[in-house]
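Most newcomers find our protein records easier to grasp once they have seen one. A record pairs a protein's sequence with a compact description of its fold. An example says more than a description, so a record of this kind follows:
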Amino acid sequence: MVVSLGARDAPSATSGSEEAWEPETLEFEAGAARLEHAALKRAIDFVGALIGIALLSPFLILVALIIMLESRGMPVFSQRRSGYRGAPFVIYKFRSMTVREDGPNIVQAVRDDARITRVGRILRRTSIDELPQLFNVLLGNMSLVGPRPHALAHDEYYGALIACYGARFRAKPGITGLAQVEGLRGRTETVEAMAARVEKDLEYIRRWSFWLDIKLLFQTVTIFLFQPSAY
């Protein structure tokens, strides 16, 4: 089954006439071009990540120590994800589970998942597990704001089912994004749920501006601490 994101995202077999989708496609291309040449966005990413790491370093060290006290293993988990233009990169997160999956079969976390540690539940609920991605931003393979990156196995799976899935790679992946701020976060139990998330990713690219990023960052701070869909 192929789930189309609709005429406004790109042409498809069910989109109808060219006039139905071409203006929105041009708008998407314009947004992608703005992102590609947005030197200010990269500057804000670099400075923001640097300041964030400097201010949060004592807290990051404390979290790492707590993780190591609860269970064996490195406190930081790494996994391959798809980045800008689909290029793979290694993402960093605080370890919140007893497994370190990074292969062709990656099972998404569910509510009351036995693989999640006690400390991990708190980290995931508050999104603290995502903070090591500030280093990804500093390295330049992520942005503070953009489409959330998925595991390579999930990209392959959903890319075959959702029309225009690959268009989300026209922006650098972000620590937060429009889809997450609007509640499309957590386990995607259906292809339609992922399609809704991808649609918001493409909307972000179409609408991108410096002020949209600022707005989403402020919304993230106020929304993400105890977002119900995080587990």
Observations:
- The longest helix spans residues 39-70.
- The helical segments are 18-36, 39-70, 118-126, 133-139, 152-159, 178-181, 191-207, 210-223.
